[in-house]
Amino acid sequence: MLSQESPREVISPEQDQRMLSTPVLCYIFKDKYLPPPIFHRLIAACITRWPVAKKKETSENLIFCGCCIFDVDLFHRLTLYCRSHIVFARITRMVIDEAKIPDTKLCTRVRKFISLNLNKIISYLSQNLKYGLSVQCTSSQGVSDDSKVYFSPMFDIWFAEESHAHDAPITPEHMNHARLCVALVTVCGNAMREVLRTQVPAQHTDIYQAILANKGKLTGRPGRPLLNPSQINVVFPDPQGKKTGTLDQFDISLLYILIRNISAVQAPIITGWGNDPQDQPRDTSLGASVERIRSFRNHITGHSPDAKISRQDLEDYWTKFEAVIRDIEKVIGRQVCSQELDRQKRQVISVYEAC
Q1: 54, 93, 212, 248: most buried by Cβ count inside 10 Å?
Q2: In sequence order, what are the residues at sequence separation of 6 or more whose Cβ sits closer than 8 angstroms to the Cβ of residue 316?
Q3: pLDDT (tens digit, 9 = 90+) per residue, 106-139?
Q4: Do the domain assignments include residue 2?
């Protein structure tokens, strides 16, 4: 690449207010490591697709060390540059008119071209490099060249075609919801399994014997069995009813039914079964913990209107998860899931720190 550093006005131009730029698309490489040859090859790939833009006053090519500007068409310019472990891309509509934003179809095509070639280059040079995709807001001062990335409300301009095809872009709030669902299903689900496994009524040797002994109660209540047909198939896969499914096959809803109806766990003292004991923080019994997990499941997955969780809500839920797991482990007398929850929490924190 050229040795000349890119002038700051190239990265953060003083734009006419009617000349609009997209938010900056950011390819953030994990472990804060981006080998220079990757960016160099990406620039080379772009040169084969679009001509390098020229400075109007001097007609010199706008290509520098770590930065290159391309004329994508007569009306749009692509600025592609690299700082630290992040590759930045911004499209500016160069024509001054009243209300024109950068063409969304063009933005989608450019983003796909960059992503496709970046993936090819990474595959050729190294199998271990990974990156995440985020968006940096464009401020009135231009685009910052530091490594801090801020999520933009105009995120979907880069993904407009997917949005129009009913394939909306994945936002940070969507990712927060996904992380929370993983923790709910794995950590809280395993905590529920451990409760069911350890809280066996005295007359039974293990929980599987208890399930078989209560088959009639679970499946045969006149008009309203405790389990629906799909749950019955999971719990009693054997047509003859002589063996049960394993706890690892039971989801949170099914585990809740079994804990409530055939285990030795007592109902929450004040609120009873079926009620969220959120107003009873002093009730740390197993029954209250089970009800709290059921409530988490309902709010996060069952009743979520848009599958989005803010960062603050993510942190609040994580605190609640930690409290419930701690209460369960205290009653059971040993660690069951707290280490896994800590591991997942560290992963989430590292993602935010990388941004």
Answers
A1: 93
A2: none
A3: 999 999 999 999 999 988 876 678 888 887 654 4
A4: no
